[in-house]
Design a protein that fits this description.
Strand order of the largest sheet: 2-3-5
Shape: elongated
Helix content: 10-25%
Strand content: 5-15%
Structural class: alpha+beta
Number of helices: 5
CATH class: Alpha Beta
Membrane topology: Peripheral membrane protein
CATH topology: Alpha-Beta Plaits
Low-confidence stretches: none
Protein name: NADH-quinone oxidoreductase subunit I
Pfam families: Fer4_7
Family: Belongs to the complex I 23 kDa subunit family.
Mean pLDDT: 94
Bound molecules: iron/sulfur cluster
CATH architecture: 2-Layer Sandwich
GO molecular function: 4 iron, 4 sulfur cluster binding; iron ion binding; NADH dehydrogenase (quinone) (non-electrogenic) activity; quinone binding
Number of strands: 5
Length: about 170
């Protein structure tokens, strides 16, 4: 195509765009839903009786290419149990100044403790409020859940939890 032809083709794009209806999102007054698998804020999930799924293994932190996750695990005891099994995540932090939303952390998690929500409203004006701890990341308690620490369901094993055999009434069903 000649240079004149190139110019005409370019102006053609401009010309055709002039008659299209503009798409202007009225955010924040009007919020559009995200795609279902949008990578938004993370969530630390619970079992149906309220115990935490996180076992403090740090695999998510090792998988993170941005070094955005900090985890400190600790031992559960019979007197103070936060998750089934031996360990739980005593400290869990995600630094959203570093996170690039890649989702590698949720792929690495062996218990599906860590998933991502569609929540994207996380802007803030200082560093410390963008480091989210368990207070912001833990899933809210649903009806029937008991806040940890508490014992595992009667007669239940770790496997019953991992296989999803625990009900919100605190019983194991196999
Ligand atoms: S989404 Fe990616 S960058 Fe963000 S915490 Fe997970 S692994 Fe790290
Ligand atoms: S969120 Fe998952 S991968 Fe990360 S420490 Fe907890 S159990 Fe391990």
């Amino acid at each position: 195509m000649t240079r004149f032809g190139d110019a005409l083709a370019g102006f053609g794009v401009t010309f055709s765009t002039m008659f299209k209806k503009p798409i202007t999102e009225q955010y924040p007054e009007g919020k559009q839903p995200t795609q279902a698998r949008y990578h938004g804020r993370h969530q630390l999930n619970r079992y149906d009786d309220g115990l935490e799924k996180c076992i403090g293994c740090e695999l998510c932190a090792w998988a993170c290419p941005a070094d955005a996750i900090y985890v400190e695990g600790a031992d559960n005891t019979d007197a103070e149990r936060f998750s089934p099994g031996e360990r739980y995540g005593r400290v869990y932090q995600i630094n959203y100044l570093r996170c690039i939303g890649c989702g590698l952390c949720i792929e690495a998690c062996p218990t599906r403790a860590l998933t991502m929500t569609n929540d994207y409203e996380m802007a803030d004006d200082n560093r410390s409020d963008l480091i989210y701890g368990k207070d912001k990341l833990l899933a809210p308690l649903q009806p029937g859940m008991q806040p940890p620490p508490h014992a595992m369901a009667d007669g239940a094993t770790d496997d019953d939890y991992y296989l999803g055999h625990i009900s919100s009434e605190g019983g194991a069903h196999r």
